[in-house]
Design goal:
The complex is a heterodimer. By secondary structure, chain A is α+β, with helices and mostly antiparallel strands. Chain A has two helices and two strands. Among the domains of chain B are: 183 residues, ATPase, nucleotide binding domain (Nucleotidyltransferase, domain 5, 2-Layer Sandwich); 78 residues, Alpha-Beta Complex (Actin, Chain A, domain 4); 143 residues, Substrate Binding Domain Of DNAk, Chain A, domain 1 (Sandwich). Chain B is 26% helix and 34% strand. In chain B, helix 5 crosses helix 6 and helix 8 crosses helix 9. Chain B is globular and about 90 Å long. In chain B, 44% of the residues are buried. Classes of the chains: A alpha+beta, B alpha+beta. The interface between A and B is large, with 34 and 69 residues. Chain B: Pfam families: HSP70 (PF00012).
């Protein structure tokens, strides 16, 4: 068993994610509002958590 | 979806009070969030929480709700009912059937109108369906304002999933004319799901939910992927000729025949007798949902003869057998449309007045495995009132967004934000030492990205290899007993139309055992932990960002030596989405 690289000897990648499907999220509920806020401000989960 | 362009000048006043309105063809309800933060369905002045969507006029006086509905007998020509589906529609595209017993829709300047005597004079006025809607909404708004003690200025309105933008614009316009701002339209199945999730201990759990909304004149079903508290509709199906009215008709026919046997005349042939039959049949149907028998009694039903009879629930269930089966078929149809199996559905929410019928709920429960929770009064003691779900969900959404500006809401609901990539396959793991086919899901398919899920793998020891892979769900069928013909209970295979009789033998034991199994499909990454002590646990976090880059972090619980790695996005996914 061989790792990905010397820097990360215990991890290796084998493949890639299948292409995603485009779907619509229904704009309702508290979780959506949080998502919309993140997306409109271009923030990630952890950046948003900090604010 | 709900971005109507007729931007109402934002009031911006802090005394914005928003309620939830469920506006149906047959019944409407209103709800708000009480001072203690609980959802409360508001009763109108007559004490009704399910308010009939009916308006009636006697000598210029307007009657609404239950009072107006009673006028269907003596004053049917001046009574308007079942008009919601006509709002914003073309005259040619509507089905006037539900209005046969009340004022008929007529065409005037290409618009749908009703010709009614709504003033004190004897002349008939042509009143547009928009005006009727505005009057109905005004009564609802006033009832809500009276109840909460402050003026209601805004609302979230629950509508079926197939309502077009033109219809929404027309509804907004009607509401605007009575100073009611519609902040957002919420699809009825989403509202029902919100109503249940708001009281759930774990509202952000990943699950597939089927919402069946069985109404008065139509039935709508939807399959929703609920992921981390966000909802994506996978499929919808509608039946515009299936609902409580069809069940009422069964009772109307039953009692009319009984009357005819006794008195040699058919009360269905007289308009007024038929209207009386219909009202009483609906009342009997509702009574049969609550108790095992009910009394049907109408004073002067036909030819001045009073009529009284009783029916028990078993009898009714037999009479309505075929119609009940249509509800089950609609549920099966939507699952098929979503490309899923009954085993994929985690939760079934029965909504709408007709969902009170115990047999319908039981029939639907029977097609699902035991692990699926069917939420209806007949199947779960903790179920919410099916008639109230849409209004409750709309009220919850209204309370969430009432302090926002309309422009903010429109921006947030724009397709730029709402159309996003969803995972095509589930992401899960395999651990060395298990069978090669074992696979445990971490992030289910149809999850919108970005997403992050964490799972703990237990019972590890020594050198452990964990492989992260995409997985596929398969339905494994094993024959249990080789007796009888297969496919009796066949959930979705071959039973299309017209084989209603197959539903009779639903108590038979299933001949085959169907189970859901996961198969790893495509490996994504691997990592190793060396020399783990006995009984170790490893916590794996999978994070997929907006660009479909997957990062994986894993660390032994209570130990040290965590590791992380990243899987780059597939090239084909790079065609800039949002």
């Amino acid at each position: 068993w061989k790792g990905h690289s010397d820097a990360n000897p215990n991890f290796r990648t084998l493949g890639k994610l299948s292409p995603p499907v485009m779907r619509k999220i229904e704009p309702f509920g508290a979780q959506f509002l949080a998502y919309a806020r993140r997306k409109r401000h271009g923030r990630t989960f952890s950046e948003d958590d900090r604010i | 979806m709900s971005d109507e362009s007729n931007g109402v000048p934002a009031t911006g006043t802090p005394e914005h009070y928003a309620i939830g309105i469920a506006f149906g063809n047959s019944y409407s309800s209103i709800a708000h969030i009480s001072g203690e933060g609980k959802v409360e369905v508001i009763a109108n002045e007559e004490g009704d929480r399910q308010i009939p969507s009916v308006l009636s006029y006697i000598e210029g006086e307007e009657h609404h709700g239950t009072q107006a509905k009673a006028q269907l007998v003596r004053n049917s020509k001046n009574t308007v009912a079942s008009f919601r589906d006509y709002v914003g529609k073309d005259y040619k595209s509507i089905d006037p059937t539900p209005c046969h017993a009340s004022a008929h829709p007529i065409e005037s300047d290409g618009q749908i109108h009703f010709s009614i005597k709504d003033t004190e004079s004897e002349t008939e006025n042509k009143v547009s369906v928009l005006e009727i809607t505005a009057r109905h909404l005004r009564r609802l708004k006033n009832s809500a304002s009276d109840f909460v003690g402050k003026p209601v200025t805004a609302a979230v309105v629950a509508v079926p999933t197939d309502v077009s933008d033109e219809q929404k614009a027309a509804l907004s316009k009607a509401a605007e004319s009575i100073q009611l701002e519609i902040l957002q339209f919420i699809p009825e199945p989403i509202a029902a799901l919100l109503a249940y999730d708001s009281r759930s201990s774990n509202p952000t759990a990943d699950k597939n939910v089927l919402v069946a909304d069985f109404g008065g004149n139509r039935s709508d079903v939807a399959v929703i992927a609920s992921r981390g508290g966000m909802y994506s509709i996978l499929a919808t199906a509608h039946d515009y000729e299936l609902g409580g009215a069809q069940l009422d008709q069964i009772l109307v026919d039953h009692f009319a025949k009984e009357f005819e046997k006794k008195h040699k005349s058919d009360p269905r042939k007289n308009e007024r007798s038929l209207a009386k039959l219909r009202l009483e049949a609906e009342a009997v149907k509702k009574a049969l949902s609550l108790s095992a028998s009910a009394t049907f009694s109408v004073e002067s039903l036909a030819d001045g003869v009073d009529f009284r009879s009783t029916i028990n629930r078993t009898r009714y269930d037999i009479l309505a057998l075929k119609t009940f089966a249509r509800f089950t078929r609609l549920v099966e149809e939507v699952i098929k449309k979503a490309g899923l199996d009954v085993l994929d559905i985690d939760e079934v929410i029965l909504s709408g007045g007709t969902s009170h019928t115990p047999k319908i709920a039981k029939n639907i429960e029977a097609i699902f495995p035991e692990s699926t929770q069917v939420l209806a009064p007949a199947t779960t003691t903790t179920a919410l009132h099916p008639s109230e779900l849409s209004a409750r969900g709309a009220a919850l959404q209204a309370s969430l967004i009432q302090e926002f500006e309309k422009s903010d809401i429109d921006q947030s609901t724009h397709e730029m934000l709402t159309v996003t990539p969803h995972l095509a396959a589930a992401i899960g793991y395999q651990v060395s030492g298990q069978s090669a086919d074992a696979f445990t899901v971490i992030v289910p398919a149809e999850t919108a990205v970005p997403a992050r899920r964490t799972q703990v793998i237990g019972g590890l020891q020594g050198d452990v290899l964990v492989r992260i892979a995409e997985g596929e769900r398969e339905i494994k069928v094993t024959q249990a007993a080789p007796k009888a013909k297969p496919e009796t209970n066949g959930s979705k295979e071959g039973d299309d139309d017209d084989d209603d009789d197959s539903d009779i033998d639903e108590d038979d034991e299933p001949e085959e055992i169907r189970e859901k199994v996961w198969k790893p499909k495509q490996a994504l990454a691997e990592f190793v932990f060396r020399g783990l002590p006995k009984g170790s646990k490893v916590e794996v976090t999978v994070n997929i960002d907006a660009e479909q880059v997957v990062s994986i972090t894993a660390r032994p619980v209570g130990g040290k030596g965590g590791l992380r790695g990243e899987i780059k996005a597939a090239e084909s996914a790079q065609n800039g989405s949002a």
